[in-house]
Here is the input.
Amino acid sequence: MNDFDPSAYLPDDLLERIRERAPIHDRENTFPQQDLDELRDAGYLSILVPAERGGAGLGLAEAAVLQQRLATAAPATALAINMHLVWTGVAKVFSDRGVPGLEFVQDGAVAGDVFAFGISEGGNDLVLFGSDTDAVPREDGGYAFTGTKIFTSLAPVWTRLGLHGLDTTSPDAPKLVFAFVDRSDAVVTSDDWDTLGMRATQSRTTRLNGATAAPEHVVRRIDPGPNPDPIVFGIFSVFEILLASVYTGIARRALELAVQTARKRRSKRSGAAYSQDPDIRWRIAEMGLAYDALPPQIESLARDVDRAADNGARWFTLLSGLKHRAIVMAKKVVDESMLVAGGGSYFSANELSRLYRDVLAGAFHPSDPESAHATAATAWLGPLET
Here is the structure.
């Protein structure tokens, strides 16, 4: 990645325009349409699509760097775009391993389609391993989906929704069905996104009333529960790595703001800049030490995904652990940055105030702290005795 230049895909001027719009969308609780339009025009939606299909041909490691960079300007925009990149990333996982079936996602991304992530369901802690959404087979080989999905980022603008549901009626049922549906009258998007942070993602509730997936857009039918199928690994690996990237980007920006403030503020008592205060220096050192650990971890795991490394059963511990560490680190860095910046950071117009609210969302993404610790405990101690 030594020759990789992030500014070639996210130029400084584009990043600055996105940064300027971020507080407006946060304040007004609106979707950053201009951000999406400019990113699409820059080819950002197809960065993970192979060059031979019209994309940039980047790997997950490069995309992770770009998402960290985007998150320093607008965390909510980065998180929303994450959900599109998850599906193009899963398509890359498939194509890299010779698994067919998601070429239409790659072609769609190049053509301007926006893919949303319709996996989360209220109260469903099985996540990828189960679904409360009904998947009813159709005579043509497609499926009709009925159920409710939550936290559907990109809600106002997506053109295709990747989702899963449970088929309980086929002869080989039960089967988890992963497929893509188009926006239609059978898909109702609620205007219910009014949250503490990450407001511009507009991750609204989506109700499916027999929304149909064409046969060619039914990607996988697998057994419920833990499964080695590429769809499970693809979603989990790309999702966790890109999530870790967004929150690591938040930490980077908070650290930058803390440094800027420490250099500008002066003590009335000593007349020296706060950057010369031993306690402030210690806080910033702690933040830097915590932050510095994450980018190399993200790059290492992303490279493993890109080269189809065999980490066996350790994959899920490594991935859930990465996401967990990134969230904990980012929260700590933002907390410390607020203290360095002083009381002015408590005002809602202050960028750190927005970062403080945005970073709190990290705890609610899979894998949650309980799941990450359970996975790690099983890896080190073995499964619970029954």
User: Anything to note?
Assistant: The beta strands are 115-118, 134-137, 143-152, 160-167, 175-182, 187-189, 204-213, 218-222. The chain has a mean pLDDT of 96. The CA atoms of residues 298 and 382 lie 26 Å apart.
